[in-house]
Specification:
Elements lengths: L1 H30 L10 H18 L11 H34 L3 H67 L6 H37 L3
Helix pairs in contact: 1-5, 2-4, 3-4, 4-5
């Protein structure tokens, strides 16, 4: 019975020693790496990596626009459309008045002169309506850009926050790592790195949130 107890104790000790050695190796590897690879816990590291790949796609412009520019752009596009519509309406009113004048004209010369004026106004209306059509297209293009950017930025923020949460979870865990002095020392190095990196993640999220707010305020 005593031998069995001794065997169990030795086995447990060896198991703990192997586990400690494995953990030390994981931490040593993590300290030598950057980004998600610097997380020594496989589950958090794997989650971080899967989210990080999406961050690049959604935050760097590969999946869609990540900025709407100035809010003034939408206002300018809308103002231009209204200006062109107003110009066409004024031309149509001018044509109507000329047509009335022509119907009241008493001589052929006067009628011919007014007729030429009407022809010019009709040409101006035609050109003006083309400008209105283009202005409407510009507004539609602006609306699509804004809508696409809002969608892309929402995704970007979600994935970047998920990456930050992976590091936050890893940070909570490394704070309690003191199995051996060597592991505790590596854990302190990782903890410092995660804490310093936290502000970087927060800055990126804040920047994207600001861009998102601008886009929402830019909706036509």
């Amino acid at each position: 019975m005593g031998n069995v107890k001794m065997t169990i104790m030795v086995t447990l000790a060896l198991g703990a020693s192997v586990a400690s050695a494995d953990k030390f190796s994981d931490f040593k590897d993590a300290v030598a790496k950057k980004g998600c690879e610097s997380i020594p816990y496989s589950d958090y590291r794997s989650s971080c990596q899967s989210q990080q790949s999406q961050v690049h796609d959604w935050c760097d412009g590969a999946r869609g626009p990540v900025t709407c520019g100035s809010e003034n752009i939408t206002r300018q596009v809308k103002d231009n459309l209204e200006k062109e519509k107003k110009a066409v309406q004024e031309l149509k009113e001018k044509r109507s008045k000329l047509q009335d004048s022509k119907s009241r004209a008493s001589t052929d010369d006067e009628k011919n002169k007014i007729g030429k004026d009407i022809e010019q106004v009709e040409k101006d209306i035609y050109e003006g309506e083309k400008r209105v059509e283009q202005a409407q297209k510009d507004l539609e293009t602006r609306k699509k850009l804004v809508d696409d950017a809002i969608y892309t930025l929402d995704k970007c923020i979600d994935y970047r926050r998920a990456v930050m949460n992976s590091f936050a979870a890893a940070l909570d865990k490394v704070r309690n790592e003191n199995e051996t002095p060597e592991i505790a020392d590596l854990a302190r190095q990782l903890r410092t790195r995660y804490e310093e990196g936290k502000s970087g993640h927060e800055e990126q999220i804040t920047a994207r949130n600001n861009a998102l707010t601008t886009c929402k305020n830019s909706r036509p």
